[in-house]
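Notebook p. 47: complex prediction with fe (ii) ion.
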Amino acid sequence: MLNRTLSSLVTERNSRAELLIDLGIDFIKDGNLTLLEVAEQLQIEPNELVEKIAKQDVIHTSPKDTDWNKVTLRELIRHIVTKYHVPLRKALPELTELAQNASKIYGDDHPELIEVEKIFGAFRFTVEAHLLSEEKILFKTIEHIESGNVNWRSDRSSNDEIKIRIREHDNSLDDFKMIRKITNNYQVPENTGETYRKWMEALKELETNLYLHMHLENNILFPRASQLAIEQAKSASAH
Ligand SMILES: [Fe+2]
Ligand SMILES: [Fe+2]
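Predicted complex, structure tokens below:
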């Protein structure tokens, strides 16, 4: 397992994501690093890391997840939109309400919630536009490339599109790193209650889904689309 990349470990079992995030392992930015490299970087005993993952796998005995490297890009895009875009878009207004309620109830004693609400508001603003850009522009282009309708060379802007979307992913994950820091890893202080707990749980769940969503884009969809474009360009110049 130590020689496997973070990306392949999460692809195989999505249930490993939460553990890795909790350990401060960023399988989006470092998706191509092996478990051993990450252990060395974070100064964690490698075997301890393997053991933790094995334990997590015992808790989640569900069958392995779909290997999204092996389906068409169109299918992968459909999966990303149904599994992540649609639910996220639906959840955002409810989460805003929860954030506001939590600030209202506990904000005086816990000003960190006001800060979290602010960061969440900025995140929501960015991510709503982000989802739309992917669906309306980038995903459509990728589907066209796969069906052979567009040659990537004649559409260089797509490379820039990918870079912009990746930068937005980085920014969103930074928002959550900040929220983790402010809330001390989503801790619920003793003198608070139900709404505080609900809000922390919702944020943690949102974070895990966000990582899994971006894992599919950064580690699978975007590299596969770029690779396809390179192959198309090669075969076009060979003719
Ligand atoms: Fe997306
Ligand atoms: Fe995205």
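Notes: The pocket of fe (ii) ion (ligand 2) is lined by residues 130, 134, 165, 169, 214, 217 (CB under 6 Å). The mean pLDDT is 93.
Next step: compare against the earlier run before touching the bench.
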